Amino acid sequence: MGMVDRGADIAWLSQYPHEKEILFAPLSGLEVQSSRVDGSVLAREVLEMRLSINLASLTIEQVISKRRKVVQDMCEQLIERRHGQIQKDAPWQALCAATGKSADDVSTYLRALLEPIASHDTDYYNEDAQLGGAINDAVTMAGRVASWPKVLQALTKELNIDLPRLLTASVVKLQPKVANPVAVGAIALLSTHITELGLDNAAIGPTGLTMLATAIHRGAAPLRTLRLAGNVLCGVDKQGTGIYTADGLSKLCDAISSEHCRLETLDMRGNCIFAVGAALLGGALATNRTLTTLDLSDNNLHINGAASIGDALRVNRTLREVDLGENQVQAAGARALSQSLASNHTLRTLKLSRNKLLEAGATSVGELLRSTQSLKHLDLGDNGLGSAGATHLAEALRSNRSLVGLNLCNNHIKEEARLLFAEALKDNESLTELNLKDEGIGAALMAGAAAPTKAATKLLERTKTFKRGAQPGPAA
Question: What parts of the sequence cross the membrane (predicted)?
């Protein structure tokens, strides 16, 4: 055998030391050289063979991944084609001239969009439907990028603004009737001075989020504030219609985790990201070092989602305000959050309204108030805490020295609970705002009063919101 045909001698591993054993590579060939009949009693045919290893042959991995290679090659062709179009097409040249971007910048962005489509496991593409879907997704995504000049021209007409002014604005807010997924990606990548992008209720969906997040990940725009409320970011609306996908959210999490991220405020209210999305987002928040304000209210996070955000808050040191209102967090979620926040010393505002915390949830939050030295504002409105839950919180306020504002409105706290807070405020000097409105009661303590005097008691009966140092007015 020549060197090309030589295998690995594994005789030293064999349990038959008298035999030669050689291991050959997969797809080795056996070629018949000659044959002869051997044996005088029992005739047998002996075939003389030659092993042949064709270095040009595909490996087993290459054979079974042919379909994936088809998708990968097609994506490369789409990128090359788009690169050539940008260099030759007049509208594209005008767009690049207005933004200072090049064909290479756009090609790099398109490659980032197509990479997830072409990087599934080999078995994924062996399903006909998934192979067809990948090809269709790649062609569609490349087509969206190709349409940028046309889409932006239409957008400038709708907004009655010229293209250079649009792409150099520091604040861009698109109304639902003019926003679309393609325009969102183009603006995020091509805008040179944008610091705030408002897309509330623009219905950009998972596709728009993917294009937007990819641009943020590339560090193309100096975005500081991103408003994405009510955009069906994971494909399911509040009525439960649609098919859930975390593809776009996953890309946003990659962007949040990247070194290029400059976001400080992220508003994702009302997007039904569920606990799955919260887990992805929690992983990104654990490494993010720029976000200070996060609104995840009305996202159906439930207990597990709240726990995921809590895990992130154990290690995150930049977030100052988090809104988790209206997420079905319940008592178990409140307990998980309270345990996590015990080791957090940077969060200043936590909003947990409309989460069905009940008395058990108030108990957990009370434990947090006894340990925290950093939390200043807490919203527990409309949680069914009742007088029993309010009792736990009032007791916790006696030892708390950081809380400035506490909202307990709409919690079915009975009349007798009002004096518990007045008593607690004798020991607590930090709380300046206590909201018990819509309960028929209120809480107030005269500035500088050391005990709930008769005047303070009357005040408790008349006012709904207490502000230390301010003259309370009568209840409406």
Answer: none
Q: What is the pLDDT of residues 155-196, one digit of tens each?
A: 888 888 888 888 889 999 987 766 678 888 888 888 878 999
4 against 30, higher pLDDT: 30
What is the distance between the alpha carbons of residues 23 and 239, in angstroms, rounded to a whole number?
61
Report the distance separating Cα 288 and Cα 346, nearest Å: 14
Report yes or no: 333 and 303 within 8 Å, Cβ to Cβ: yes
∠ CA 135-216-282, rounded to 5°? 90
Query: Around Cβ 388, how many Cβ atoms within 10 Å?
Result: 15
Q: Which of 380, 390, 395 is nearest to 413 (CA)?
A: 390
- Give the single-character DSSP code of 58: P
pLDDT value at 299 more than 90 = yes
434 in helix, strand or coil?
strand
Q: By the 8 A CB rule, do 443 and 434 touch?
A: yes
Give the C-alpha separation, 310 to 306, whole Å: 6
pLDDT digits (tens, 9 = 90+) for 424-452: 888 888 999 999 875 444 433 333 334 44
18 Cβ partners below 8 Å, 6+ apart? none
DSSP letter at 295 equals E
Residue 29 predicted with pLDDT over 90: no
- Residue whose entry in the numeric block shows the structure tokens 């090809």: 135
CA angle 464, 448, 437 (to 5 degrees): 10
Q: What's the number of CA atoms in the CB half-sphere (13 Å) around residue 334?
A: 30
Q: Which of 88-92, 95-99, 469-473 has the lowest mean pLDDT?
A: 469-473
Instruction: Name the pairing type of β-strands 465-467 and 433-435.
Output: antiparallel
Spatial separation of the C-alpha atoms in residues 382 and 388, rounded to whole Å: 15
In the chain, what are the domains?
8-52 (no CATH), 60-144 (no CATH), 226-467 (3.80.10.10)
Burial 280-310 (b: 16+ CB within 10 A, else e): bbbbbbeebeebbbbbbbbbbbbbebbbbbb
The pLDDT-based confidence of 463 (bands split at 50, 70, 90) is very low
Q: Rounded to two decimals, what is the model's pTM?
A: 0.80
How far is it, in rounded angstroms, from Cα 267 to Cα 272? 13
Helices 386-399 and 358-371, packing angle to 10 deg:
0
Contact 113, 141 (CB under 8 A): yes
